[in-house]
Amino acid sequence: MAVAGASKEERKERVVKFGIQINPYFPGPTGNAWDAVECAARAIDRSRFDSLWLYDHLLYEGGYGGHPVTEPVLECFTALGAIAAITSRVKLGQLVLGTPYRNPALTAKMATTLDVISRGRSILGIGAGWHQREYEAYGFGDFEEVPVRMKRLEEAVRLALAFWTERPASFEGRYYRLDQAHENPDPVQKPHPPILIGGSGEKVTLRLVAQYAQYCNIGGDVDTVERRFGILREHCERLGRSYEAITKSVYTTLIVGRTEADVARKREKWADYVPKSGAIIGTPKQVTDALGAYARVGCQYVIYRTPDWMDPEAINVFSEDVIPALVSA
User: Fold this and answer.
1) 141, 172, 122, 279 alpha-carbon torsion, rounded to 10°
2) Which of 102, 164, 169, 242 has the fewest CB atoms within 10 Å around its CB?
3) Least confident of 28-37, 38-47, 288-297
4) 235, 203 Cβ separation under 8 angstroms
5) What is the extent of the structural domain holding 139?
6) How many domains does the chain have?
7) Residue 81 CB: number of other CB atoms within 10 A?
8) Are strands 215-218 and 177-181 parallel, antiparallel or unpaired?
9) What is the mean pLDDT of the chain?
10) DSSP state at residue 271
């Protein structure tokens, strides 16, 4: 949202685009979880949303914030490939892949395949992973401590970049390696699909963003986000990377209703599916004001999760009444 008196450069920094993450995977009208995803994906592709995101999880048994009951879970890459085949415009990404779940060379190959199927619309969203229960339930082994997972994340990103930019590609790390690997076919996007590194860790995660990524994705209230953007800028300056080369994105939970009565109804209906604090809930004007505050501290991209994603009206209200108010020409 442009601010009166702002310079051209400042207005450009405040251009806001939007992505929507769809989950939980409630069954659709036929009882099939894919039916609901397909319907939402087609609606989002026709809307003003710039991107559509899926979480990378395998198991939700209830009891987590925003996931109070057992729910169906679709595998991320498989579902995104299907979405790519039925859409033509919207960008597609993972928010975010858990590095330990896949060999990173396989992850890069899967990301290339998605980029080819979507004709250049994929974003590789990746993080260290956090869901210990599903990791152990699927027999992946012992869930490693955060410092080890962060080292794996960095190696995975470095390996993917080598895989996409070297012919042939070799990589030797502590945890992963490539041996004269040839990527064929190439991704559609050059030099490679953009990388989003998710997480708000100020010492390591934001340093990895500054060093390797095209998108950051952080959470927090407006003051916290502003401070974290400042830390990201410091990392960029220290590493000799342009801060402007990174799209600054924020992740939140959001519910929008057309009227105050609609908001009250949704607030009650979805009370168990939103965090106790930090969610943005309101009419289009209220939501626009809340998101505008993030835009004023440098947020360029908002990706939000909503339990209301199965309702085409919720997608339309945000697309028609919120996005135009926040996207600068």
Assistant:
1) 50
2) 242
3) 28-37
4) no
5) 8-326
6) 1
7) 18
8) unpaired
9) 93
10) G
Contact by Cβ (8 Å): 58, 89 = no
- Kindly state whether residue 1 falls inside one of the protein's structural domains: no
- Give the distance, in angstroms, between the CA of residue 225 and the centroid of all CA atoms in the same chain: 16
Q: Is residue 3 part of a domain?
A: no
Exposed, middle or buried: residue 306 (CB in 10 Å: 0-12, 13-18, 19+)? buried
Q: What does the alpha-carbon distance between residue 232 and residue 216 come to, in Å, rounded to a whole number?
A: 9
For residue 24, the domain's CATH number is 3.20.20.30
Q: Name the token pair of 159.
A: 């390996």
Residue 3 has pLDDT above 60, yes or no: no
232 inside domain: yes
Residue 217 bridge partners (DSSP): 198, 249
Helix (H, G, I), strand (E, B) or coil at 302: strand
Q: What angle do CA 106, 107, 109 make, to 5 degrees?
A: 65
Q: Are 192 and 165 in contact (CB under 8 A)?
A: yes
Of 114, 4, 50, which Cα lies nearest the Cα of 247? 50
What is the secondary structure of 303-315 as a DSSP string? EEE-TTTT-HHHH
DSSP state of 254: E
Is 136 a domain residue?
A: yes
Nearest-angstrom CA–CA distance, 152 and 155: 5
Q: Is 166 helix (H, G, I), strand (E, B) or coil?
A: coil
What span, in angstroms and rounded, lies between the C-alpha atoms of 245 and 243?
Answer: 5
> pLDDT, tens digit, for every residue of 197-220?
999 999 999 999 999 999 999 999
Token look-up 């990201």 returns 232
Q: At 116, phi and psi to the nearest 5? A: -70, -45
| Residue labelled with tokens 């970049």 | 161
Residue 88 has pLDDT above 80, yes or no: yes
Q: How far apart are the C-alpha atoms of 18 and 284, rounded to whole Å? A: 14
Asked if 12 contacts 295 with a C-beta cutoff of 8 angstroms, the reply is: no
Residue 4, pLDDT > 70, answer: no
pTM of the predicted protein model: 0.93
Report the SS3 class of residue 54.
strand
Shortest CA distance to 114 belongs to which of 124, 105, 104?
A: 124
